[in-house]
Amino acid sequence: MAMMNGKKYIESLRSLHPEVYFFGQKIKSIVDEPMFQPHIHTAAMTYELAHDPEHEEIMTATSHLTGERINRFTHIHQSIDDLVKKVRMMRLLGQKTGTCFQRCVGLDGLNAVYVTTYDIDQKYGTDYHERFKKYLLEVQKNDWMPSGAMTDARGDRSLRPSKQTHPDAYLHIKERLGDGIIVSGIKAHITGAINSHEIITMPTRTMGEEDRDYALSFAIPSNTKGVTFIFSRQTNDTRRLDGVLDGGNPKYGIVGGEAIIIFKDVFVPWERVFMAGEYDFTNELVETFAGYHRSNYGGCKVGLADVVIGGSNWIADAHGINKASHIVDKLTEMIAMAETCWSCTLACSYEGYRTPSGAYHINPLLANVTKLNITRMVYEWMRLAQDIAGGKIITLPSEKDLESPETMEILTECFAGKDGVPPMDIIKMLRLIENMSVGAGLPEAMHGAGSPAAQKIMIARRSGIDRKMELAKTVAGINRDKYFESVTGKDETAHWDKVKKKIKEKEVQIY
Fold first, then answer.
1. Residue 322 covered by a domain
2. Would you call 344 a catalytic residue per the annotation?
3. Does residue 406 sit within a domain?
4. Do 197 and 346 reside in the same domain of the chain?
């Protein structure tokens, strides 16, 4: 198995020709489209670092299927060490790119489908797991980048998928054939979609029996007939067309190149189908994926924090104030918050466990705590970055003004800092901080891998609050069973059994 480097990855995209639209125009070549290049260069870094001897240990792994060396982004976690190395890889890539590097969604999709298909087969005697392992061999052999397509358009969220006025609000099976299925629907906000070789789909929520046709997981090439991508807008995205300086992070761009994927009567052969109606396993697949993906955020976002903290210190030094007590205090706050999130992600990896499939999963409670912290702390450390950088990050003149003979000299003097620091370097750093602390990365930190409400639901589910209550009763010397009976005249166990039964019978939507 030959792992691709960054250059080979980019060249591999040339042969795909997916149907992509942006700004109302059909894109002829995704590789040559200037608006797409930063996202492609970022994904290429995941390939390039796998060939760097300094980072080989965390960027590569040994395939449990073949025993050969593979890119870690195509690996099924086989140990606690794998889980830890995964998040170390996330932090490293965040440090190298300062943005979303896109491949983690597909990695988490591979692992979640691997775990769930094994469990489906154990119950129903299906062969989904063997199908998936054959597909995984292809992914590893070709070093493919699959996008993970989970989120549906969802339409009226008060209605179940099968009750929607517009059925395509959720991806679903339209027809079952002898050799495969026909599917239609929409997946939204899919990271790295246009520059991925493959698409792995997963259900976006728990399904009921009436939603059987929406309980669906499969994998297809991104250039499959009937698949259309519409590339999404991002804050200040066209800045990259104005010049290197105004882009802020010109080589790697903003966030992850998200797109809407439209499936219109798409044929999927059975060998690429990994769930087709097993609605009782949708909750497992969704929660397993969410756990993997939420654990990542304490890695990748902390890698970004490393960059913005370094940039904030550099700009303070360039302005001659990095020794001021309030600057030191703010930088220390940023570091403490970032390392708190890093501690969370390490904890949920070290507290992982082996699933029946043999793959390892993170601690779901701690993964959701990690992501909930990210939804809050990223905003705070980026606020402090804005504070340190000052108002210049939203009032800088354009690159063209800085290059104009009529205005260049006076602007250069205006933005000068300490002697010996080139003013253009100061402007470059201010643009980077603007890109990272004002741009699209903030709402992505909030909603990527699920909104805070989703994390709180999972934290409440897995908090073990009943056990905590028993601990408190023991310490307080309370025998609650006798106390409950003396107050209510009812047997407590029987009472709560009835309550739990009523709760179980009333279905509650979560995703």
1. yes
2. no
3. yes
4. no
Selecting among 300, 341, 344, 348, the annotated active-site residue is: 300
Is the domain of 363 the same as that of 484? no
- Residue 342: phi and psi, rounded to 5, are -65, -40
Task: Work out the average pLDDT over 104-126.
Answer: 98
Q: Do 441 and 487 sit in the same domain of this protein?
A: no
Same domain, 255 and 379: no
Is 300 an active-site residue? yes
Alpha-carbon distance of 199 to 180, in angstroms, equals: 17
Q: Is 297 a catalytic residue?
A: yes
Residue 443 belongs to a domain = yes
Q: What is the pLDDT of residue 248?
A: 87
The catalytic position among 46, 97, 104, 252 is 104
pLDDT at 509 over 50: no
How much of the chain, in percent, has pLDDT values that exceed 90?
81
Question: Can you give the pLDDT at residue 510?
Answer: 39
pLDDT value of residue 508: 41
Active-site annotation holds for 341: no
Residue 477 confidence (pLDDT) above 90: no
Share of the chain above pLDDT 70, in %: 94
Given a cut of 80, whether residue 504 has pLDDT beyond it is no
What is d(CA 214, CA 148) in angstroms, rounded to the nearest whole number? 17
**Are 246 and 130 contained in the same domain?**
yes
Q: 178-194: per-residue pLDDT in tens? A: 999 999 999 999 999 99
Q: What is the CATH number of the domain that holds 435?
A: 1.20.140.10
Residue 342's domain comprises 285-460
Question: For 252-309, what is the HEC assignment?
Answer: CCCCCCCEEEEEEEEEEEHHHEEEECCHHHHHHHHHHHHHHHHHHHHHHHHHHHHHHH
Q: Where are the alpha helices (DSSP H) in 98-182?
A: 104-124, 128-142
Say if 66 falls within a structural domain: yes
41 labelled catalytic: no
Do 375 and 396 lie in a common domain? yes
Residues 276/387, Cβ–Cβ less than 8 Å:
no
pLDDT in tens, 86-109: 999 999 999 999 999 999 999 999
Q: Is 293 a catalytic residue?
A: yes
Residue 426 token pair? 């100061």
**Number of domains present in the structure of the chain:** 3
H-helix or E-strand spanning residue 423: helix 423-438
**CATH code of the domain in which 200 resides:** 1.10.3140.10
Q: Are residues 115 and 253 in the same domain?
A: yes
Distance CA 199, CA 384 (A): 38
Q: Is 348 a catalytic residue?
A: no
Q: Beta strands 216-221 and 273-276: pairing type?
A: antiparallel
Task: For residues 490 and 444, state if they share a domain.
Answer: no
